[in-house]
Design a protein that fits this description.
The chain is mainly β. The protein is built from no helices and 18 strands. The strands form 9 sheets. The protein has a two-stranded antiparallel ribbon. It has a two-stranded antiparallel ribbon with strand order 3-4. Strands 5-6 form a two-stranded antiparallel ribbon. The protein is rod-shaped and about 115 Å long.
């Protein structure tokens, strides 16, 4: 006797059948998913998420410090140096403000420059010491201030200017 099929089975999550008469389900490609059984196609992961393997039943949200800016991605991207993202499901990273920096990729926060240091350009990853003749008393400075007449800073990274000694002046 010949045994034929007496019923059809739905394709499992993470797989699909696009047309009638199929004898096997196809798996979803990386970057796409099928969340329910019996799907006729897979859905691309939305921006802010990714699926890094085939036969996915869901896309995973990008973690803070990472992002996915288009549909169908297989992995989330790290925020670059000088950028950050504090939230999951991000579609982009933000640039650190002047006076702040990141110390690594995939940052979730920007750190302020310490007193005596500054950062004047966005998307940088290091703070610069104030030059001799300038100072910064502030954390997160975007510039250093020139010492006023009669005062000086003879070191880099000064947080104050000191008065000239009796009998001396600045040029």
């Amino acid at each position: 006797s010949i045994n034929g099929s007496s019923s059809c089975q739905k394709c499992r999550q993470g797989s699909f059948s696009a047309s009638a008469g199929q004898w096997m389900c196809s798996v979803c490609a990386s970057g796409s998913f099928a969340s329910l059984p019996g799907q006729t196609h897979c859905i691309n992961c939305l921006p802010g998420s990714a699926a890094n393997h085939t036969a996915s039943s869901a896309c995973h949200a990008c973690t803070p410090g990472r992002f996915a800016d288009t549909t169908g991605l297989t992995q989330c991207h790290d925020c670059m140096m000088g950028e950050f993202n504090a939230y999951a499901n991000a579609t982009r990273c933000l640039s650190c403000a002047a006076g702040t920096v990141t110390t690594h990729t995939a940052s979730v926060i920007c750190h302020t420059c310490e007193r005596g240091r500054f950062q004047d350009v966005m998307t940088r990853h290091n703070c610069t010491a104030c030059l001799m003749g300038t100072f910064s008393q502030l954390n997160d400075a975007s510039t250093c201030v020139a010492c006023s007449d009669g005062t000086l800073s003879n070191v880099t990274g000064a947080i104050v200017c000191i008065p000239c000694a009796v009998g001396t002046v600045t040029h």
